[in-house]
Fold:
Amino acid sequence: MSDWYYYKNNKVEGPVDDDFIRSLIESQEITNDTLLWSKQIESWTPLSDIEHFKDKCEPPPLPKNYSSIGVQETITFIGYKDKDESVSSSPEETDKSDSAIAGKDTHIYQEVNWPRPWVRYFARMTDLFSFSLVGNFIFALVAPSSYYFIYYYIPELLFGVIMLFLWNFVEAFLLSTWGTTLGKWLLGTSVRDIRGNKLTYNAALSRSFQVWIKGLGLGIPIISFLTIINSYYKLTGKFGKTSWDFQGRYSVQHKKLNPIGVIMVIVINFAYIFFLNI
Structure:
């Protein structure tokens, strides 16, 4: 087993082992053009040129406009460019030395579909707000006396924690059957496992509970604020993943934002704010 380094999101990541590299290939988080290095090879080399991983490489190239379609949170090698020269069409036409990575005399041009923390945040808030609105409406309609008792005698904080707890089971069902939720769907986001399949119910439930604890701090205001900030820095940091997605090897996929979906998200959020002030 070798220690490998790979170049992603303008950073050198590693060291990681063979199995980790293979998992990145299977989840399409690195592509045939991703640059890798280990002690076995002399210089940074595209994945497709490394014999050790050729059995895992995908033969067909990605479409040129894949980033606008939104496949994964990935970075794709496009070519090198010496200063004042045109972009090379392939790595073989240029020097693949460490200076390409260090940025001494060359620049690297990529197509990038960055992690989108704010899209994910508003997708989750939309999910929670819509679930709260629908849940309150159904509860008030089916059991009005119990609803008004809870509304007037149960502290808002406790009620919010209970609603977040119940949402975990609903979200797990939606992710395991549809691969997305209302908020995620409106903002072009979905969740897949390492092979690109929908999560199983148990995997989705485990992920939802990790988000509830590590990402939302159980819904307790101060703790929630700190965990959200921590999740933001995880998502925009070294590996571009939250801890629960990294550990579970889940892939959060994004499509181009749809204006109608964005408008619907705004409407749901304002509807929730209106509901709180009734």
About this structure: The mean pLDDT is 77. The longest strand covers residues 75-82. The first helix runs from residue 18 to 26. The beta strands are 4-8, 11-16, 35-37, 45-46, 75-82, 106-112, 189-192, 251-254.
